[in-house]
Amino acid sequence: MTFRASHLLGIEPLTQDDIRALLDRAEHYVALNRGPSKHAEVLAGMTQINMFFEASTRTQASFELAGKRLGADVMNMSMAASSLKKGETLIDTALTLNAMHPDLLVVRHPNSGAVDLLAQKVTCAVLNAGDGRHEHPTQALLDALTIRRARGRLHRLTVAICGDIAHSRVARSNILLLGKMENRVRLVGPPTLMPAGVADFGVEVFDDMRAGLEGADVVMMLRLQKERMDGAFIPSEREYYHRFGLDAEKLAHAREDAIVMHPGPMNRGVEIDGTLADDINRSVIQEQVEMGVAVRMAAMELLAENLQLAREEAPPHG
């Protein structure tokens, strides 16, 4: 099984074999990260640049740690203070960076499609760390690894994704990945937080939490993305929690061994009951964070291998 992609821009282009290859490689890094020496030298001599045009704690820290553990030279660019503020275009920024010969570019951007545009202008491997409402591929992959380890498989499960689906790139990437791996996906939330054209996603849609969770193997809660909302999507946080917040009573409708997930950051008492989030028998939220580092290490290693092969096969200049 091989992973042939030159970039990781989204889940959409990946095959089942690509996904399995990446998750299998990540398992190796889970073991490494739990050991006394957490370093591999597979990216030694390579340069990784992290460009975060949107604030991020978890994802940026995870990518930085992943690169350092693989032996890369890691540079974090403060995009808030970058030349873009002075009027430079995204393409000019890409060309400037490309002239520095990086090997891996990790990009988070508020506009859908911006990371794809960057990837067309550079000669290195690009990893999408989240672009607008489009995709967040490594989050879906780390969620997949968490599910596979907790449930023993990643196919023919019933997964309920609950909450703010409309504004969530995490939901979009998970719907794509879980669909590819032959799972039954349910979207649960108020109609105001469902995306347009949801009927075409190949999912079941529920606006009743209890019905949506009935018999589910996995319950994936999402953050209310207030920063992306322009208008009143919910009556109040209190009302939202009453109807769509996960608590023990609602979770009782899922399978007895159902796992609870959340990509973070959590709004406790809005999307999920704090006690449930911390319940080590049901919640795998901390495992998701751990799997994030391993998945990002695997993705960077596989992309770097493909980049090296492409460079070796490229005709010499001149």
Characterise this structure:
- By secondary structure, the chain is of the alpha/beta class.
- The chain has 11 helices and 9 strands.
- The protein has helices spanning 16-34, 58-69, 90-98, 114-121, 137-151, 169-180, 209-213, 237-244, 248-251, 274-277, 285-313; strands spanning 47-52, 73-78, 104-109, 125-131, 158-162, 184-188, 204-206, 218-221, 259-261.
- The strands form 2 sheets. It has a 5-stranded parallel β-sheet with strand order 7-6-5-8-9. Strands 2-1-3-4 form a 4-stranded parallel β-sheet, with helices on both faces.
- It starts with 15 loop residues before the first helix and ends in a 5-residue tail after the last helix.
- The mean pLDDT is 92.
Q: Note the main sheet.
A: 5 strands, parallel
Structural class: alpha/beta
- Please tell me what the overall shape is: globular
What's the total helix number? 11
User: Helix-strand pattern, N to C?
Assistant: HEHEHEHEHEHEEHEHHEHH
How large is the radius of gyration? 20 Å
Kindly estimate the percentage of residues that lie in beta strands according to DSSP. Answer: 5-15%
- Total number of β-strand segments? 9
Tell me the helix content: 25-40%
Distance separating the two termini? 36 Å
**Average pLDDT, to the nearest integer?**
92
> Can you tell me the residue ranges where pLDDT is under 50 for at least 5 consecutive residues?
none
Strand order of the largest sheet: 7-6-5-8-9
